[in-house]
Amino acid sequence: MTDDLTIPELPAIGLLADFEEEDRRLLSSYGNFAKFEKGDRLIRQGTPQDTLYFVVSGLLHATCIEEGRHMLLGKIQHGEWFGEINVFDPANASASVDAMQFSQVWSIKREGIEQFFNSYPVPGLSLMISIASLLAHRLRKLDEKLTVAKQLSNISESTPPRNA
User: Fold this and answer.
1) DSSP label at residue 17
2) For residue range 16-73, what is the model confidence (pLDDT) as tens digits?
3) Would 3 be classed as within a structural domain?
4) CA–CA separation, 6 vs 3, rounded Å?
5) 123-135 pLDDT tens trace
6) What's the domain count of the chain?
7) I need a labelling partner for 64 at 20 to 30 A (CA). Which of 20, 21, 45, 79 fits?
């Protein structure tokens, strides 16, 4: 990598906060930076998806259409990752992701991640641990939501109907 200031680099935010500057610089070179205007779609639900994304700046929304209903799954802000599941298990995207304001995003394909791991095993391991931590955190949150939904379902089933 060169000291040319026109070449963007991943910032020390989110899961990359503890990465050394040189490791972030190296990782930056394995992916691509892109700019998106408000309303631009990064991922379309139901299309093949094998890319990991990192939001450098801006705000995105993850949405899906389920049973004909448009549902907001979550907001994705600077310092956050998305697309991590399909990097390890390539499939069609389960959601669409749209820019809600001007956003800068860095992305890397699975092949780029593998090349980075092979070339730089120590920061590659740090990246893998960061991604695994993200997946574990999201699975834990999903488990909590499912537990609450199950508890609410049990309450609904055990509550006798009201007499009118």
Assistant:
1) T
2) 999 999 999 999 999 999 999 999 999 999 999 999 999 999 999 999 998 889 999 9
3) no
4) 9
5) 999 999 989 998 8
6) 1
7) 79
User: 10 Å Cβ neighbour count for 106?
Assistant: 22
Strongest mean pLDDT among 15-24, 94-103, 147-156: 94-103
For residue 95, the domain's CATH number is 2.60.120.10
The upper half-sphere exposure of residue 6, i.e. CA atoms within 13 Å in the direction of its Cβ, equals 0
Cα 90 to Cα 83, 84, 86, 138: the distances in Å are: 10, 10, 4, 18
pTM: 0.82
For residue 125, give the 3-state DSSP assignment. Answer: helix
Distance of CA 63 to the CA centre of its chain: 13
In 3-state terms the chain splits into helix, strand, coil percentages (rounded to 5) of 40, 30, 30
Helix (H) or strand (E) holding 77: strand 69-77
Residue range of the domain that includes 32: 14-155
The amino acid sitting at 149 is A
Tokens standing for 84?
A: 């991590």
In a domain, 71, yes or no: yes
CB 55 within 8 A of CB 102: no
What does the pLDDT read at residue 95?
A: 94
Would strands 69-77 and 81-82 be described as parallel, antiparallel, or unpaired?
Answer: unpaired
Please indicate, yes or no, if residue 1 is contained in any of the structural domains. Answer: no
